[in-house]
């Protein structure tokens, strides 16, 4: 039987998701920390003619007490303490057979811990990643579910109904146990960070290296959105760059302070990559770029002290477009490598083709490339590396030369391109059988007698002539 649904947290995302649930014909109980938001939501639902199956409650406890069992309560509240407290409270209020669903951007380590805790109290726990911003939540987000198969079957009809559809199939699935859904959402956000940063680096070169106006650059992005780069982020970049500030008449982008916020998912992606002995260098570059951006005053001083200049670059439109395609493929590849490492570590048995499929609509990184990525994971993929799949190796061979020209021009022109440069170094590294860490191993042996493996006979624990 389908559980009775409750939703706690009527902020932007929670309200949008609640309307979506009602719109799909499901009965819904709602509550919020402050009663005002609940009242405002009730009015909104009434105005949208969606209130007939809505029941409002004054608090989380009231909702939990007054809902008939079995209950499934979705938490749409800020990650961290608020989620922790709500789970504590619900564990005292709910009964075996009931489910708690955390639908926020939660660190998957917390989800793993909470799954054990909540299930230890006889209840069911689901960690659910939801992507697509407010628009997605209202009209169909991409949904990444972590929990037991039983927990999934209890909510599946609702989740599939409210999710985005790609060719009529829901962009939602059960991806694995405990933290799997939240981790896949975290890596989605990491890729989102990298893609946004790479787009932004190319904007910077066109703007400050080629003197193009934001609107003209925006028009380029708009035209790219019809081809191989078709994606939500390219589409909205075109719109942002072509928008005008109504107060000043300037390009909208020119009145925005150049300090980027971040709520944590990009950083968590990296922390986990490093914990697993991996690197997702383009995501790391994107997180670093946001952190550096927050030091506005240092940069203002630095422009003078370091005599910063941005010189002209000469590149054609196709160079930028191809560079973005190559770098985007690499960012996705790094994201999937990390998913693969985590799947091994936490025994999640993630289905990478399926993940690519549920990212094809509803979420922020939706792009035409994801269709090819899911096909690649279902097809021949040497060594499990996306960049080795024939379709991608071929695309990279056609587009990496442009990425190389862009990175070279940026370096010579003094344009910071941390994400593009790291993407290029990644592909150049994996295109060489003989790397450079022979020297690193030699250095380690020299100063610490750490030993190395000989290339000729495979013997380990060897030392160099500096110890003879
Ligand atoms: C999504 C977004 C969403 C949110 C991020 C933004 O998939 O819908 O990723 O989850 O906008 O939290 O993250 P930052 O605030 O860290 O940029």
From TrEMBL:
User: Residues that bind NADP(+), according to the entry?
Assistant: 9-14, 32-34, 77-79, 105
Source organism per entry reads: Marivivens niveibacter
* Annotated InterPro entries: 6-PGluconate_DH-like_C_sf (IPR008927), 6PGD_dom2 (IPR013328), 6PGDH_C (IPR006114), 6PGDH_Gnd/GntZ (IPR006113), 6PGDH_NADP-bd (IPR006115), 6PGdom_BS (IPR006184), NAD(P)-bd_dom_sf (IPR036291), Pgluconate_DH (IPR006183)
SUPFAM superfamilies registered for this protein in UniProt: 6-phosphogluconate dehydrogenase C-terminal domain-like, NAD(P)-binding Rossmann-fold domains
* Keywords for this protein: Gluconate utilization, NADP, Oxidoreductase, Pentose shunt
Can you give the residue ranges of the 6-phosphogluconate dehydrogenase C-terminal domain? 181-467
Under PANTHER family, the record lists: 6-PHOSPHOGLUCONATE DEHYDROGENASE
Binding sites annotated in the UniProt record for substrate: 105, 131-133, 188-189, 193, 263, 290, 444, 450
- Output this protein's name: 6-phosphogluconate dehydrogenase, decarboxylating
What is this protein's function per UniProt?
Catalyzes the oxidative decarboxylation of 6-phosphogluconate to ribulose 5-phosphate and CO(2), with concomitant reduction of NADP to NADPH.
The reaction(s) catalysed by this protein are: 6-phospho-D-gluconate + NADP(+) = D-ribulose 5-phosphate + CO2 + NADPH
Q: What is its EC number?
A: 1.1.1.44
The protein's superkingdom reads: Bacteria
Quaternary state and interactors: Homodimer.
Q: Which residues form the active site?
A: 185, 192
An example of a Gene Ontology BP annotation on this entry?
A: pentose-phosphate shunt
List the pathway annotation. Answer: Carbohydrate degradation; pentose phosphate pathway; D-ribulose 5-phosphate from D-glucose 6-phosphate (oxidative stage): step 3/3
Q: Which family does it belong to?
A: Belongs to the 6-phosphogluconate dehydrogenase family.
Q: Which GO terms describe its molecular function?
A: NADP binding; phosphogluconate dehydrogenase (decarboxylating) activity
């Amino acid at each position: 039987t389908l559980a009775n649904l409750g939703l706690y947290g009527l902020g932007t995302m929670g309200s949008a998701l609640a309307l979506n649930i009602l719109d799909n014909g499901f009965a819904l109980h709602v509550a919020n920390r402050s009663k005002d938001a609940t009242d405002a939501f009730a009015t909104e639902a009434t105005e949208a003619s969606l209130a007939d199956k809505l029941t409002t409650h004054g608090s989380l406890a009231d909702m939990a007490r007054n809902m008939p069992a079995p209950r499934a309560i979705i938490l749409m509240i800020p990650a961290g303490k608020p989620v922790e407290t709500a789970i504590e409270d619900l564990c005292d209020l709910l009964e075996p057979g009931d489910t708690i669903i955390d639908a926020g951007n939660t660190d998957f380590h917390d989800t793993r811990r909470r799954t054990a805790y909540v299930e230890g109290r006889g209840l069911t726990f689901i960690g659910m990643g939801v992507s697509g911003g407010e628009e997605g939540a209202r009209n169909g987000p991409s949904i990444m579910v972590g929990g037991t198969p039983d927990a999934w079957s209890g909510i599946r009809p609702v989740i599939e109904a409210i999710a985005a559809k790609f060719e009529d199939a829901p962009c939602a699935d059960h991806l694995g146990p405990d933290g799997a859904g939240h981790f896949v959402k975290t890596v989605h956000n990491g890729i989102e960070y990298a893609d946004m940063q790479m787009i932004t680096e190319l904007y910077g070169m066109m703007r400050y290296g080629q003197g193009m106006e934001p609107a003209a650059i925006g028009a380029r992005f708009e035209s790219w959105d019809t081809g191989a780069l078709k994606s939500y982020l390219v589409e909205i970049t075109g719109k942002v760059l072509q928008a005008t500030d109504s107060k000043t008449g300037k390009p909208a982008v020119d009145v925005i302070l150049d300090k980027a916020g971040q709520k944590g998912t990009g950083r968590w992606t990296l922390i986990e990559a490093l914990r697993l002995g991996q690197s997702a260098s383009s995501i790391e570059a994107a997180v670093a770029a946001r952190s550096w951006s927050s030091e506005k005053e240092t940069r203002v001083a630095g422009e003078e002290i370091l005599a910063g200049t941005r010189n002209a670059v000469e590149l054609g439109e196709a160079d930028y477009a191809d560079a973005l395609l190559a770098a985007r493929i690499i960012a996705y590849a790094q994201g999937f490598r990390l998913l693969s490492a985590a799947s091994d570590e936490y025994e999640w048995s993630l289905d990478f083709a399926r993940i690519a499929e549920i990212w094809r609509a509803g979420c922020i990184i939706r792009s035409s490339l994801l269709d090819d990525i899911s096909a690649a994971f279902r097809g021949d993929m040497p060594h499990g590396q996306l960049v080795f799949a024939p379709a991608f190796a071929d695309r990279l061979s056609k587009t990496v030369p442009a990425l190389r020209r862009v990175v070279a021009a940026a370096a010579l022109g003094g344009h910071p391109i941390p994400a593009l440069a790291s993407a290029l170094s990644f592909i150049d590294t994996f295109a060489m059988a003989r790397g450079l860490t022979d020297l690193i191993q030699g250095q380690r042996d020299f100063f610490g007698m750490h030993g190395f493996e000989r290339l000729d006979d495979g013997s380990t624990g060897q030392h160099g002539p500096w110890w003879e």
